[in-house]
Amino acid sequence: MTDKIESNTNQFNYATRVDKVTGNWRLTRSVRVTLTILVAVIMLIPVAWMIMTAFKSRADAVAAPPKLLFEPSMEGFIALLTQRRQLTVEQGLKELQTRTDLKWYDKVMLKRGQQIIDKSQYVKYLTNSVIISVSSTIFSVLLGVLAGYAFSRFPVKGKDDLMFFILSTRMLPAVVVTIPIFLMYRQVGLYDSRVGMILLYIVFNLSFSVWLMKGFIDEIPREYEEAALVDGYTRMQAFWKVVLPQAVTGIAATTVFCLIFAWNEYGFALMLTTEKARTAPPSIPSVLGTGGIEWAAIAAGSLGFLVPVVIVTFALRDYLLRGVTFGAVRR
To answer: Structural domain boundaries of the chain?
Structure first.
């Protein structure tokens, strides 16, 4: 009888401890989730404000106090994509009343006293961003995969020193090397050229790409390649048919990180380009209106610049965590 009572008491104590631990775990998890949501909301406030400003009229964009409720307008996008001349209110109203061939965007700008005269350069700058960032990312990842495979699989002489040298190219801030690169580019004819910017971004992305891809390939068992070689595959065939399919996770993660750097880079694009190869980041802050700063146009340009990289990042979001933790294929 006594043993049965002790057994029931022990079971009760064990159940109590389990309930207590479970309750503490749930409380801790709830606190973490709440803090995560709170931090995320705080971090997204500037993004939400930018989106709101992009759809405000010029008057609403500079209103004090700021307006949270407003009538949506496309003025910012139209001002971003066009060049205009200032009119008086009377001139604008006269144009609206007398002309019948006006487009909807012409009417929007005439109501605010401006007349569209030409297209802006923003589309050209955004196109440069796409060409330069995509091209540099492709070559950075390609060279990073090959170099990472070589450092991972072959006995390269001075491997540690070479890896450190590759990493050292990212140790200095961009502003330190901008002047020497500017002088060099002027001499060799790469200043204000897409080729020059692509080469520069490849060099800066390559260190990150090599280190990241080496970490992924290190985790792919060598036995897979050895089995392929025994079956008669060449080294290149084993690399193409065995290693690459298992390194897709690492390649995708490396692509995202390299693309984000090239897409968002500001310093080099500002100092090493003027007109032909100018990208979107340095061009957006220079959006000026005829009567002051076009805050709605700046917000619209920032939004248009943000959307493509968000889409790519969201599409490859499943690979990002693995990219940070260097998790590819486990033994």
So the answer is: 1-54, 76-119, 122-325
